[in-house]
Design brief:
Elements lengths: L7 H6 L40 E3 L9 E8 L6 H11 L1 H4 L4 H4 E9 L2 E10 L2 E15 L2 E10 L14 H20 L15 E10 L5 E11 L6 E9 L5 E6 L2 E2 L20 E2 L7 E7 L5 E8 L6 E2 L1 E2 L9 E2 L2 E5 L5 H4 L8 E2 L1 E2 L6 H5 L2 H19 L11 E7 L9 E3 L4 E4 L12 H14 L8 H23 L10 E2 L9 H4 L2 E2 L6 H4 L8 H4 L4 H15 L1 H14 L7 H14 L4 H13 L15 E4 L10 E3 L2 E6 L9 E6 L7 E2 L7 E7 L3 E8 L2 E8 L6 E6 L6 E4 L2 E8 L3 E8 L6 E5 L4 E9 L2 E11 L2 E10 L5 E7 L3 E8 L3 E8 L6 E8 L6 E2 L10 E7 L3 E7 L12 E6 L10 E4 L7 E6 L5 E5 L6 E5 L8
């Protein structure tokens, strides 16, 4: 769920800090979010032979997605895992899994009353396949097993080799650089003054090789990058997949599952003082005691506590709930993390914290105010619910310890969010309106359910699979809250999420989400890019969560809760989307013997929310598609001379990232410009005569050029890294790149004589970035140290013919300089002012000689925009921006706004309004001629290159 409020710094940039999203499109961050994987026209499933029961054909695979209503004897085997694999191997005519004992490894088995659910992880030549998970359900009676159904994803088209050309060390370096580059794009940190320590403290951890199931498969290094965003204080945990042949980041998503928008066991043994440690049951087990405390709503509650032998304090440590195993006792503990920044506690265990303590078993106001009483009590309620209602022993089903951290803050001293990071629950301290986030039991239930999901379906926290992850966390969080407070399923407020967090606001005003909001796919689904809300994991969640909650109202809590839990633990797999989620819930209901009328009620609940097969095709658009299903990340289009150029990844995997070009009037067929050589070709630029782009391989980056009319590809430059932008104007090519340590630099060179190159920045005390070229001139931003810790931040224009540099304007302290654009008479740039209570950004313009400086957008007020990109023709300038807001919604997502290139903020008629009224993110705008713009649009859930010849104006 989204943040209701954030720190001053974080609020200003909220819509682009959420990480990437999209299990919906494993290939890219820009290629968004329709379902678990992009459609793959090249992989047509082979029809399955007739079979007893119901068989649903899988997508992009010959293995069925669902087999139900069968009773087939499984071969005799000592373990359910071996029985399941031997069964699949014996049924190759149906399942098309040629060697199940070799290619499927156990990934978790649950046994309840003789019912065995076996999850099997697909491996390709010994390498795990992301999202490749197949499930076999069996009944075991007196040692004889009967298979009752199967489901999941097994990708039969994989044939990639599994020998990595990129070393693990290089993959970690590239992953860290990828996150650093994204943070720099988001925050423009390369231009921020102050110190040289402007590189975020990021570290990468190698997790091993993984095959992404795209076409024949993409061999990748899985890297976890963690640290802190220095501009916002927000934690950074990214799961990055680096192509093991080219060293390019091909997929990434956030590893932090937040209650609001922004992997290890929780019981992992630790030896350092103050960190959770497993206790041997052979040692003296401390005696549990009954403590008390007062929740933030004033209610007194009983608490399971324990007197700590070393400190003598009573601590929030509960050993009574989770059964001990042969070697260790298991605990439910609540930890005092007051004074810890959120970035310090995510993705690892913070140093120096201790379990919340009290001199007596009666915990006082200090524990109440920190949210410790609520967190400890709520964790017990959530544990009891899953144990009593579903027979689940803790989050993983096997009795793992449960740890909660309370009192965490952001840079401003407040933090209104909570998250599960794969190890523990973390609760923010709140602010003047919002109590500590543990104050609502639905928040605790939500976060702990993320842990249950991670140890069952493992829904990837991106795109639709991530939205279902959020939806199911909301569902069980509200279910537990309803049970604790005795709320009826038909109560109109039962669907509110987080409504008990506020100090003064009424519940409905306070709630962060409402499962009864009536949102549907066709009316409310928003196509996010991966930079925003992980591809819409929070924003789109109530579409699926609302369907589940409607079913709960119609069928009653007990039955619906059992259906949803069964679907989660026995049917859903990591890359499932909304349509597959619907099928999982319906199949679970059928397996439970739900009567036909109630199954139809379930179907109606999903249909009412628009979740039906093919729903994505019903989403409309007001723009013209130039090229569909772009499927790339971190790279956008360019336009010039009546042509566009864009990087695109095809869906059968035969071309990683390739550069294509076409006419901006939509006539003719697009041209493939780049060679298909296994490298990743991105950041293209064109002036209508030449296309210039970067190609990423294992040995670095080449800057390449090719005439639109055809001819050989020319190498212009080779370097360690380049992250765009690239510009071409006749013989002039300008581009951004970075030296070791992320030291930003700008260079321009001659297309005819590439050795004639000019460099700016790239040093410890001199940085340059955000270049653009047009009419024989290059604009760029720079930050140069003047003396001591004093820096000059300047916007510059160079006349290439004469080499004369003009400082158009020097920015004041506590500002940040952003992207530039240039036409024949003026230069345009974005300037962020972070000196006040709230960050502001203006679109600024000046004549090429530095005169006539004007702002095209106001810094404050209803017309203020938070700009992130800028592009200009001779008559119009278009800024990619969003409206600053405290919530993520369609209106606050990145959109394109157009202005008169020669106007000012004070002139009536300067603004031409919105370029498009499409729903969803609009990014990487590129000016053509006049008012025409091309851009990447995610309205339909996949990213397309689209255009409009004139702005639409107002969007009501």
């Amino acid at each position: 769920m989204r943040h209701p409020r954030q720190s001053r710094r974080a609020r200003g940039r909220r819509a682009r800090l959420s990480g990437i999203s999209g299990a919906a499109a494993l290939i890219s961050a820009a290629a968004l979010v329709v379902s678990a994987l992009p459609a793959d026209a090249a992989t047509v499933p082979t029809p399955l032979p007739p079979s007893p029961g119901e068989v649903v054909q899988g997508q992009r695979t010959d293995t069925p997605a669902l087999v139900q209503g069968i009773r087939e004897q499984a071969p005799a085997a000592a373990t359910p895992e071996n029985a399941a694999r031997t069964y699949l191997n014996a049924k190759q005519d149906r399942y098309r899994i040629t060697n199940a004992p070799r290619d499927l490894t156990p990934a978790g088995t649950t046994v309840t009353d003789g019912h065995e659910t076996v999850r099997l992880q697909q491996k390709h030549h010994g390498i795990p396949v992301l999202g490749g998970e197949y499930i076999v359900r069996m009944q075991n009676k007196d040692g004889t097993r009967t298979v009752t159904g199967t489901s999941g994803k097994y990708f039969t088209a994989l044939h990639t080799d599994t020998t990595a050309e990129v070393t693990e060390t290089l993959a970690v370096e590239r992953a860290v650089e990828a996150v650093l580059a994204e943070l720099n794009r988001q925050n423009w940190t390369s231009s921020r003054g102050g110190t040289e320590e402007d590189t975020p403290p990021l570290k990468g951890i190698a997790r091993g090789l993984v095959v992404l199931p795209r076409g024949p498969g993409v061999l990748t290094h899985h890297i976890t990058v963690h640290g802190t965003d220095p501009a916002s204080g927000e934690p950074v945990v990214r799961e990055i997949y680096i192509d093991a042949h080219a060293g390019y980041p091909v997929f990434q998503y956030s590893g932090i599952q937040t209650f609001g928008t922004p992997v290890t066991s929780a019981g992992k043994s630790r030896t350092a003082a103050g960190k959770p440690a497993a206790s041997s049951v052979r040692q003296r087990t401390p005696v549990a005691e009954q403590g008390t405390g007062v929740k933030l709503d004033g209610t007194s509650v009983a608490l399971e506590v324990e007197q700590d032998a070393s400190s003598g304090l009573y601590v929030l440590r509960d050993r009574t709930r989770i059964p001990a195993d042969e070697y260790t006792t298991k605990v439910l503990s609540t930890w005092d993390a007051r004074g810890k920044l959120v970035g310090d506690v995510s993705g690892g265990w913070p140093d120096g914290i201790k379990e919340f303590g009290s001199p007596t078993p009666a915990f006082g106001a200090e524990a109440t105010d920190a949210g410790a009483v609520d967190a400890h009590w709520a964790a017990g309620q959530v544990y009891d619910y899953f144990r009593d209602e579903h027979g689940r022993n803790s989050l993983d089903g096997h009795g793992t310890s449960i740890n909660s951290l309370v009192g965490v803050t952001g840079y401003s001293g407040t933090y209104v969010n909570a998250f599960w990071d794969g190890q523990k629950m973390v609760y923010g301290i709140g602010d003047e309106e919002y109590r500590p986030l543990s104050a609502a039991v639905d928040v605790a239930g939500h976060e702990m359910t993320h842990g249950v999901i991670e140890r069952s379906a493992r829904l990837v926290y991106a795109g639709q699979s991530g939205a279902m992850n959020e939806a199911i966390a909301d569902y069980f969080g509200n279910t537990i809250e309803a049970k604790v407070h005795g709320t009826s399923a038909t109560d109109p407020d039962s669907g509110l999420v987080g409504e008990r967090l506020c100090r003064t606001k009424a519940p409905r005003e306070c709630a962060l989400r409402d499962l009864n909001d009536g949102r549907t796919t066709t009316r409310s689904f928003i196509g996010f890019d991966f930079i925003n809300d992980n591809g819409g994991v929070h924003q789109n969640s109530t579409i699926f969560g609302g369907a589940l909650w409607d079913a709960r109202e119609d069928l009653g809590p007990d039955l619906t809760d059992r259906i949803v839990y069964k679907a989660l633990t026995e049917y859903l797999t990591p890359l499932d989307g909304f349509t597959e989620g619907r099928a999982a819930v319906l199949a679970a209901a059928k397996d439970l013997g739900v009567k036909s009328a109630d199954q139809k009620t379930l179907q109606r609940a999903f249909t009412a929310h628009g979740i039906v097969p093919g729903w994505e095709l019903a989403i409309g658009s007001d723009s013209d598609v130039l090229l569909g299903r772009i499927n790339t990340t971190g790279t956008g289009p360019d336009a010039g001379g009546g042509w566009w150029a864009v990087s695109k990844s095809n869906e059968d995997g035969s071309e990683p990232y390739s550069v294509w070009a076409g006419r901006t009037d939509g006539k003719g067929q697009p041209k493939l410009i780049s060679p298909n050589d296994g490298r990743y070709h991105d950041n293209p630029a064109t002036d209508g005569k030449t296309v210039v782009w970067t190609a990423h391989g294992v040995d670095g980056v080449d800057l390449l050029a090719r005439p639109l009319a055809g001819g050989p590809v020319k190498i212009l430059w080779h370097g360690r890294s380049a992250s765009g932008p690239v510009s071409v104007d006749g013989d002039v090519v300008a581009f951004d790149h970075a030296n070791i340590g992320g030291r930003a630099a700008v260079s321009y060179l001659s297309l005819k004589d590439p050795q004639n190159i000019h460099n700016f920045g790239g040093g410890t005390y001199q940085r340059s970035h955000s270049s653009s070229a047009n009419h024989g001139k290059v604009a760029y931003q720079s930050r140069n140290r003047v003396r001591g810790v004093t820096y000059a931040l300047t916007t510059n224009v160079i006349d290439v013919a004469t080499g004369v540099k003009t400082v158009v304007q020097q920015a004041p302290d506590e500002t940040t300089l952003g992207p530039t654009a240039i036409n024949g008479t003026r230069v345009f740039w974005l300037l962020e002012d972070w000196s006040g209570e709230n960050d502001t950004i203006v679109l600024r313009s000046a004549a090429l000689d530095g005169s006539g400086v004007v702002d095209l957008t106001p810094a404050t007020g209803p017309d203020a925009l938070y700009g992130r990109s800028v592009t200009a023709s001779e008559t119009a300038v278009t800024v990619g921006a969003y409206v600053p807001d405290d919530e993520i919604r369609n209106e606050s997502l990145p959109k394109l706004y157009q202005f008169d290139a020669n106007g000012s903020v004070d002139e009536p008629g300067t603004s031409k309004g919105r370029v498009s009224c499409n729903r969803g993110t609009q990014t990487w705008g590129a000016a053509v001629d006049g008012s025409q713009v091309v851009w990447l649009d995610s309205t339909t859930g996949t990213t397309n290159l689209v255009t409009r010849t004139r702005p639409t104006g107002r969007c009501d």
